[in-house]
């Protein structure tokens, strides 16, 4: 009988503190309203599309200006170098995020 009372009291105390903690927890950041979120996403997509179009124009101009195979190879190497620089940048950012995360 005593064990049952102890268990019930313990459970009541633990449940009560959980409810209090849930009520006193810091409020979460208010969600962005849908229209603003949608506009933000569309703006980022437009920016990305413009950057990609600019890179495509530069690569196309390089290929059009090529006079021989060596020039074409130079264009290809230039494009690959740009992609590698971008890839390395993102890898570095990923590694920094991983170092900051608690484990």
Task: Note down, in words, how this protein is organized.
- With 103 residues, this protein is mostly helical.
- It has a domain at 34-100.
- It is 84% helix and 0% strand.
- α2 packs antiparallel against α3.
Task: Name the overall outline.
Answer: elongated
* Mean pLDDT score: 84
Number of strands: 0
Percent of sequence in beta strands = under 5%
- From the alpha-carbon coordinates, what is the Rg to the nearest angstrom? 29 Å
Order of helices and strands: HHH
Q: In angstroms, what separates the terminal alpha carbons?
A: 44 Å
Helix content: over 70%
- Distinct helical segment count: 3
| Helical/strand content category | mainly alpha
| Low-confidence residue ranges | none
Largest sheet: none
Outline of the structure:
This protein is mainly alpha-helical and 103 residues long. It is 84% helix and 0% strand. Helix 2 runs antiparallel to helix 3.
């Amino acid at each position: 009988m005593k064990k049952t009372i102890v268990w019930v009291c313990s459970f009541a105390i633990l449940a009560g503190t959980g409810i209090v903690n849930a009520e006193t927890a810091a409020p979460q950041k208010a969600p962005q309203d849908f229209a603003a979120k949608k506009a933000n996403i569309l703006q980022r997509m437009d920016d990305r599309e413009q950057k990609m179009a600019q890179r495509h124009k530069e690569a196309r101009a390089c290929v059009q200006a090529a006079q021989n195979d060596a020039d074409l190879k130079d264009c290809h190497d230039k494009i690959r170098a740009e992609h590698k620089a971008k890839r390395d940048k993102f890898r570095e950012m990923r590694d920094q995020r991983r170092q900051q995360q608690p484990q």
